[in-house]
Every structure is written in structure tokens, then in C-alpha cells.
Design brief:
By secondary structure, this protein is an all-beta fold. The protein has strands spanning about 5-10, 20-25, 30-35, 50, 55-60, 75, 85, 90-95, 105-110, 115, 125, 130-135, 140, 145-150, 160, 170, 180, 185-190, 190, 200-205, 210-215, 220-225, 230, 235-240, 250-255. The strands form eight sheets. It has a four-stranded antiparallel sheet with strand order 4-5-8-9, with no helix packed on it. Strands 11-12-14-15 form a four-stranded antiparallel sheet, with no helix packed on it. A four-stranded antiparallel sheet has the order 17-18-20-21, with no helix packed on it.
């Protein structure tokens, strides 16, 4: 909400059926399309917008600028032989002014060991140094997703953590981070001791990654998605499956 006006996105629609960014008054009046996405600007945002007092920031699940002027970029994989591999845009980070001007792609996700790919249910959080933090579901060296940071001008994109799954790590986050000071908290749909998802902590500088809870299915839940909330020194969230009836749970994890 900015000056009592709501700002949001759709995952489809618009003249290119790629989605739109819009504003609307709380009473439903004055619906205004601020930006109508083309695929080259990003497709399917699944999350909220973040406001830093000047610009709005968001992410898309797919799409992005063509690389090297073609359908996919080409890079060389070091080795005995040089192997060409196409890079496919897999979503973007963008900024836009609240009046709909100055839409800018800050980063295009392409996956691989050094980048994320495909955000889902995710939005960006802003720390006290005006640095954005977020997650992707895929990408990274194991293609199990990443936690990243990026400056609001699009510089200094950094992988803070690459998920690898297994008993001591999460995999495939579907959601957003919660920020509290220099602490970030989130969930992954897979990974952990039973490969049924985790709740984790990481600091904004990438240090201190810790699994706070590994889900086991019954009774605690399976496949948490979206973000957790912090209340009275405990994290609260939900799972899609697990619990007594395998229909999901609401959980609380105390922070010591």
C-alpha cells in the first residue's frame, strides 16, 4: 500500500497474456494497469511487490530478455572439449516506479551453478542496508534452488546459499523469506532428514545457515510453502501435506 493505494500483479492476462502490474483503490475504484508484460520482460509473477520508498521491486517465474540476441545465450563449458550450452531465461528481478514508469530488468535468472532459476510464490525482502534478498525454486549447483541478494540498482547479485538437499540441507523453496534484523528465515518443500521439507535460518551476509526443523510427515507436516511469520519468538507456517489426515498442518517452531 502506497498513499492508500494498493499495488499488485497478476500471473496472466494483459494484451500479451504475460501478466500485468496494477494499482487500485481499497474500495475497488480506479483500477489502473501500470505495466503490461511482454515475455522478454518476464512472465508469471507469483508473489508480492516490495517498496523501498521510491521504487517497487518484484520477480517473475519465467521469461526474460533474450540472451546474446537469440532464443538462448551460448556459453562454453570448460573441459577437454568446448561444449556449447544454451541458456534459457527463467524469470527476472525487476523495478518499476509507482506511476508505472521506468520499468527495468535488474537481473535475468538463467540457472546453472552460479544463478537461480524459477521463483514461485516468492517476493523480495529489503534489509536495513537497502539490499534485496530472495529465493528461487531451482538453479544452483544441485538445481535445488538458491538464496540470493542483490542491490536495488541491479548490481552485486550474490548467491548466499545453494540448496543441495539431503539430511543437512533443504531443497526447492516455494515461497519467500522473512527478515528480522540481519536474520532471514524460510522454508523448503523438500530436503531434510525425511526429504519432506525444512525450516531454515541464514544471516543476510550468507553466514549461519542452519536447519531449524526437518519435517517427517506425520504428525508435523510435509512440504511447507510460502513464508513463515514471527510472533512471540516463534515461527509459524503451514504445510501442504502431512499431519494426521495427510491434509497439511499449521506449525510453530520456538526460537531459542
Amino acid at each position: 500500500v502506497i498513499d492508500n493505494v494498493l499495488y499488485a500483479m497478476t500471473a496472466a492476462g494483459g494484451s500479451h497474456n504475460g501478466n500485468v502490474i496494477y494499482s487500485v483503490n481499497p474500495d475497488g475504484s480506479n483500477l489502473t494497469v501500470l505495466h503490461d508484460f511482454k515475455s522478454s520482460e518476464g512472465d508469471e509473477p507469483h508473489g508480492r511487490l516490495t517498496y523501498d520508498g521510491t521504487h517497487l521491486y518484484g520477480m517473475t517465474k519465467d521469461g526474460g530478455p533474450k540472451l546474446n540476441g537469440g532464443k538462448g545465450g551460448v556459453f562454453l563449458v570448460p573441459g577437454i572439449f568446448s561444449v556449447k550450452k544454451k541458456l534459457k531465461p527463467s524469470g527476472v528481478i525487476f523495478s518499476i516506479d509507482p506511476d508505472g514508469t521506468n520499468y527495468t530488468v535488474l537481473h535475468t535468472f538463467v540457472g546453472g551453478a552460479d544463478d537461480g532459476a524459477t521463483t514461485d510464490h516468492g517476493y523480495l525482502v529489503l534489509d536495513s542496508n537497502n539490499v534485496l534478498h530472495g529465493m528461487t525454486t531451482l538453479g544452483g549447483s544441485s538445481n535445488d534452488g538458491v538464496v540470493f541478494s542483490i542491490h536495488t540498482d541491479g548490481t552485486a547479485f550474490t548467491l548466499l546459499h545453494t540448496f543441495a538437499g539431503g539430511a543437512n540441507d533443504g531443497a526447492n523453496p516455494y515461497g519467500s523469506l522473512l527478515i528480522s534484523g540481519t536474520d532471514l528465515y524460510g522454508t523448503t518443500a523438500n530436503g531434510g532428514t525425511s526429504n519432506k521439507g525444512t525450516v531454515f535460518h541464514i544471516s543476510t551476509d550468507g553466514s549461519g545457515f542452519t536447519i531449524l526443523h526437518s519435517f517427517a510427515g506425520n504428525p508435523d507436516g510435509e512440504k511447507p510453502i510460502d513464508n513463515v511469520i514471527l510472533l512471540d519468538n516463534a515461527l509459524y507456517g503451514m504445510t501442504v501435506f502431512g499431519g494426521t489426515f495427510n491434509e497439511g498442518t499449521i506449525f510453530a517452531i520456538p526460537l531459542n
